[in-house]
């Protein structure tokens, strides 16, 4: 298969690599860029484990061709902790015991981040809707919802 160049910003860092034509963003990130934080679950758009943010919008990386992200700004969970300090969502997930096996967690966090980036003070219903595309087999969702709301509160306290 032909190899093609792709160039984008990954968590603020310029990246330029050659990938096989038709490679999904999920596999480009994991296999070529060395970022294994997006998880390959169903790989057909139904579990949300592969969720990333592309140019500010939540995207399923398993359904996104890497070539279509040329020049984009891509965010993954791997880039959230700045200088070793956890992002408020990571901190709230940890403090609230909202991860068990952890497989869904990176995708959940990106779905929640996309919500909070656009809606800093979400309602419980906003959170439920935002993570509705993300499957968790372990937690029953309540600890995750509570953690996202706690992160939003902590963000607004820090901003105030
Ligand atoms: S791996 Fe992409 S939605 Fe499941
Ligand atoms: S913590 Fe196991 S799938 Fe969510």
From TrEMBL:
The domain of life is Bacteria
What InterPro entries does the annotation carry?
2Fe-2S-bd, 2Fe-2S-bd_dom_sf, 2Fe-2S_ferredoxin-like_sf, 2Fe-2S_ferredoxin-type, 2Fe2S_fd_BS, Beta-grasp_dom_sf, Diverse_Oxidoreductases
Domain 2Fe-2S ferredoxin-type, first and last residues per copy: 4-80
Cross-referenced PROSITE patterns, in alphabetical order?
2FE2S_FER_1 (PS00197), 2FE2S_FER_2 (PS51085)
Q: Which UniProt keywords apply?
A: 2Fe-2S, Iron, Iron-sulfur, Metal-binding, Oxidoreductase
Signal peptide (residue range): none
Q: Which CDD domains match?
A: fer2
Cited Gene3D superfamilies:
3.10.20.30, [2Fe-2S]-binding domain
GO: which molecular function terms? 2 iron, 2 sulfur cluster binding; metal ion binding; oxidoreductase activity
Record bears the keyword Iron-sulfur: yes
Q: What is this protein called?
A: Carbon-monoxide dehydrogenase small subunit
């Amino acid at each position: 298969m032909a190899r093609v160049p792709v160039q984008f910003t990954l968590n603020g860092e310029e990246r330029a690599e050659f990938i096989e034509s038709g490679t999904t963003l999920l596999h480009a990130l994991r296999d070529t860029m060395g970022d294994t934080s997006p998880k390959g679950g169903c790989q057909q758009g139904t579990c949300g484990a592969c969720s990333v943010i592309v140019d500010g919008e939540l995207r399923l990386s398993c359904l996104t061709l890497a070539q279509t992200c040329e020049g984009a700004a891509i965010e993954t969970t791997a880039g959230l902790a700045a200088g070793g300090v956890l992002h408020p969502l990571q901190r709230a997930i940890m403090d609230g015991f909202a991860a068990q096996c952890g497989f869904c967690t990176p995708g959940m966090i990106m779905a929640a981040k996309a919500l909070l980036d656009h809606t800093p003070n979400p309602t419980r219903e906003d959170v439920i809707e935002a993570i509705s595309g993300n499957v968790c087999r372990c937690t029953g969702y309540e600890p995750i919802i509570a953690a996202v709301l706690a992160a939003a509160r902590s963000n607004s306290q820090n901003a105030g």
